[in-house]
């Protein structure tokens, strides 16, 4: 084997390496960390093992065996990261589409420009370098976009699966193109079809993004209306309490005047203490220096009290709490609703809410008793729906979306009849 062959052989494996690194970047950006510790390190180990296997057995490039090896690598590495089975399948589909579109488009374009056969394209070291660079650039770009999509995704699993049908068809067509006609030159028609499929997928993704934005906008409007209702209810409660206190103010003054005229100072002091308790019970219970948050927590406390649930708060100064407006209502109202609903079915019915500021983040913890331990997703993520789990089936999808959008990390656990949700919200999530 001459030096030229070894150069071609090395560059060919560089194409494979950049392709696999692109897979790993997309999987990490889209799925995040799972239960496996150090997934990127293990992915690197699997990459080296796969590379060694390819070199030892000389599987070549753009062959059925090479495609099979790449698919095996893809399905093994995706298991190292988080996400649901549906999300893992979507990540594989994204990577497969990206890989095939990039390499096929580059092969056909280069073949058409150089007027050479498709097989000759992958036999030229300079062409392989171009494909390797394209793999890295496109892989990094796709990883950035899917990471952003992960934070803004508002589609239900069935909707996302339907949207992936067209890219799936494109993957099949590109596999057929890769494995056929390698001994022919690319014509204007075949080159146009390959590039056209790439453009069609890009247009399709733009349409999906527009649809996703519309779903997010509708959801935002819904929770904006809920927020306004919360504010209006809190204002009405305050107004009603103020009117009652104002109406009773004259009677309180008369009673105090009578006690003082009789020289009963101790009685007047006891009367004032009783009035203080009545005023405190009729006004906002919380004082976190965040009026809207105080209103939300006060209303949930009152709702819990009516259901016989004891709620205990351990809060810090929350005037600069990073969640505001609609997002604050979405997260806290849903978490407390679920916690109170579940605790009402347990004994003793208790809910603990704690917020602490540590460094550059706020730690929020909501812990409640449950009648029995509930089964949680194996990846430790918030499910889009948990209606099979008593007391934790409403609003978790919306909570998940808000937290992802703010770059917050969260965990949930359930053991010894205690359900705990904890999240860390960065103070600067711009």
UniProtKB/TrEMBL annotation:
The chain crosses the membrane at residues 12-31, 40-59, 65-82, 89-110, 122-146, 158-179, 191-211. The keyword Cytoplasm does not apply. InterPro entries: HATPase_C_sf (IPR036890), NatK-like_C (IPR032834). Keywords: Membrane, Transmembrane, Transmembrane helix. This is GHKL domain-containing protein. The keyword Transmembrane helix applies. Residues 326-424 form the Sensor histidine kinase NatK-like C-terminal domain. It comes from Faecalibacterium intestinale.
């Amino acid at each position: 084997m001459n030096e030229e062959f070894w150069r071609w052989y090395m560059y060919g494996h560089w194409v494979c390496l950049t392709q696999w690194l692109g897979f790993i970047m997309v999987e990490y950006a889209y799925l995040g960390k799972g239960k496996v510790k150090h997934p990127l390190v293990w992915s690197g180990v699997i990459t080296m093992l796969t590379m060694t296997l390819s070199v030892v057995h000389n599987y070549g490039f753009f062959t059925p065996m090479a495609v099979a090896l790449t698919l095996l690598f893809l399905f093994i590495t995706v298991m190292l990261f988080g996400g649901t089975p549906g999300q893992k399948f979507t990540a594989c589909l994204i990577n497969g589409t990206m890989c095939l579109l990039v390499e096929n488009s580059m092969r056909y374009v280069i073949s058409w420009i150089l007027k050479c056969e498709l097989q000759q394209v992958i036999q030229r070291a300079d062409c392989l370098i171009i494909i390797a660079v394209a793999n890295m650039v496109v892989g990094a770009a796709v990883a950035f976009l899917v990471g952003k999509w992960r934070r803004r995704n508002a589609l239900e699993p069935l909707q996302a699966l339907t949207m992936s049908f067209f890219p799936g068809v494109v993957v099949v067509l590109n596999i057929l193109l890769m494995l056929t006609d390698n001994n022919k030159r690319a014509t204007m028609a075949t080159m146009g079809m390959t590039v056209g499929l790439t453009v069609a997928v890009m247009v399709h993704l733009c349409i999906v993004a527009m649809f996703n934005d519309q779903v997010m906008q509708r959801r935002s409007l819904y929770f904006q209306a809920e927020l306004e209702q919360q504010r209006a209810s809190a204002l009405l409660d305050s107004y009603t309490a103020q009117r009652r206190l104002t109406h009773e103010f004259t009677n309180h003054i008369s009673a105090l005047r009578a006690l003082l005229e009789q020289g009963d100072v101790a009685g007047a002091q006891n009367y004032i203490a009783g009035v203080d308790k009545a005023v405190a019970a009729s006004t906002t219970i919380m004082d976190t220096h965040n009026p809207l948050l105080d209103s939300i927590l006060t209303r949930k406390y009152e709702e819990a009290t009516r259901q016989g649930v004891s709620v205990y708060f351990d809060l810090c100064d929350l005037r600069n709490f990073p969640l505001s407006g609609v997002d604050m209502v979405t997260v806290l109202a849903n978490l407390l609703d679920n916690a109170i609903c579940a605790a009402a079915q347990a004994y003793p019915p208790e809910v603990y809410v704690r917020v602490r500021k540590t460094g550059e983040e706020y730690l929020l913890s909501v812990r409640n008793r449950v009648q029995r331990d509930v089964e949680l997703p194996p990846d430790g993520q918030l499910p889009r729906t948990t209606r099979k789990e008593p007391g934790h089936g409403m609003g978790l999808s919306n909570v998940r979306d808000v937290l992802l959008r703010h770059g917050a990390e969260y965990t949930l656990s359930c053991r010894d009849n205690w359900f705990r949700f904890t999240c860390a919200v960065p103070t600067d999530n711009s």
